[in-house]
Amino acid sequence: MIPDYYNTIEKTSIAEFKDRGSKFIAYTFPVDSVIAFKERLAEVKKEHPKATHHCFAYRIGLDGNNFRVSDDGEPSGSAGRPILGQIDSKQVTNILIIVVRYFGGTLLGVPGLIHAYKTAASLALQVTPVIQKPVEVNYTLQFDYTMMNDVMTIIKQCNCTVIRQEMQLFCRLDIGIPRNRLEEVLFRLKDIRGIETEKSLQPQ
Fold first, then answer.
1. Which residues contact 19 (CB under 8 A, 6 or more apart)?
2. d(Cα 204, Cα 200) in Å, to the nearest integer?
3. How, if at all, do strands 136-144 and 170-178 pair?
4. What domains lie within the chain, and their CATH numbers?
5. What is the pLDDT of residues 50-65, one digit of tens each?
C-alpha cells in the first residue's frame, strides 16, 4: 500500500570527515530523476577533478526499486552500500549522496572505508532538513481560458502542484494532486463545465 506522504529533502548540504589523512566530503542533493542525478554527479566531478574517488548512492521514487550505488574504484561494498544504508536509515527518497575522497596516503582497509563513507553520509544527513511531502497523482487538465480562475482556486486551496502549463485560448495544465485529496479535487473540477481531466501515465 502506498502511503499518503513521503520523506525527502529540498536543500543541498555538505559535510566533511577525516580519517588518517584521507578526507571525505559528502554532498546531499534532492533529485527526482536519473537525469538530475547525472547532472549533480557531473557538477561534483568538475568541482573535485583531483579527488581519488567519487562514490555515491541515490534512491528515487516511492516503490523502493529505483536506486543505485557506486564504489567508484573502492573495494566492492565499501562505499556505495554504506551510503545507501544511511539514506534508508532516515527513510528518505528522491535523494542523492555523493562522497568525494581525497586519499591521504594510508590505506584504511574495508572496515575503515565502510566506517568513513557511512560517517560522512550520516554527517551530511544530520545537517540536511528532512521534509514530508504528499504523494501526488498526476493529472492533465484541458479547459477554456475563461475557466482559469476557477481552476487555479481549486489547485491552490487543495495544495496541488503545477508541473507544466500551456496558456493559450485553450489551456493545458499538468498537475500533481495530493493522493489523500484526490476525490475532493476531481469532484470540484467536474463541477466546472467543459473541463477535461485525464490521469497521466507518469505517477509522481
1. 104, 108, 112, 115, 116
2. 10
3. antiparallel
4. 5-132 (3.30.230.30), 135-199 (3.30.70.260)
5. 999 999 999 999 888 9
Alpha-carbon 32 to chain mean position: 4
Angle between helices 109-126 and 80-89 (to 10 degrees): 40
DSSP string across 75-113: STTSSHHHHHHHHHHTTB-SEEEEEEEE--SS--HHHHH
23-36 burial code (b ≥16 CB/10 A, e <16)? bbbbbbbbbeeeeb
C-alpha grid cell for residue 142?
Answer: 484541458
Threshold 0.90, pTM exceeds? no
CA angle 192, 194, 195 (to 5 degrees): 70
Q: Sort 105 into a burial class: Cβ within 10 Å, 0-12 / 13-18 / 19+.
A: exposed
